[in-house]
Amino acid sequence: MEKEMKKIEGESDAPLAQPPSDVALEKAAVPSPPPPPVVNKAHDVDDPKAIVPVDKASEPLVKKPSGGSIDRDVALAEVEKEKKFSYIKAWEESEKTKAENKAQKKLSTLNVWENSKKASLEAKLRKLEEQLERKKAEYAEKIKNKVGLIHKQAEEKRAAVEAIRREELLKAEEMAAKHRATGSVPKKLLGCF
Description:
Elements: H1 2-13, H2 21-29, H3 68-182
């Protein structure tokens, strides 16, 4: 038992566990916040170039536990957390890409549909215009034929009137010659007498 006591005493004389040197370096590497700038109150406050003190919220200091295994556990937890966040970010990007691709596909389909409908309606319009042009040409031809027919009828009537006029002139000349030969006066003189 005495030997065990001496062993325990010998161990107790050993120095206590020192924090790892990297923790000590981290504490030394954390800079202290800079002192606030001194403002000279002699300057006018309305001066646009005047230095105005700004209260900066001091950054919270990250405290690292001094235990070696605890540091490792914390580091592993951070790595695990970052891994989860990177998976989440990758999933989010994937979902956004899927949504974009889906929207682009729908827009492309919609554009194709719109263009086909427009082309169909434009073809229908051209067909109607061609039909109207044909009908217009047919109607114009009919009108021209009617105009020609009317002109022909008018010429025939003019010829008939001219023929009647010539007959009446011949008749009048014959009657005048007969009256001259007989010396009789025609019963009908000019209508104004």
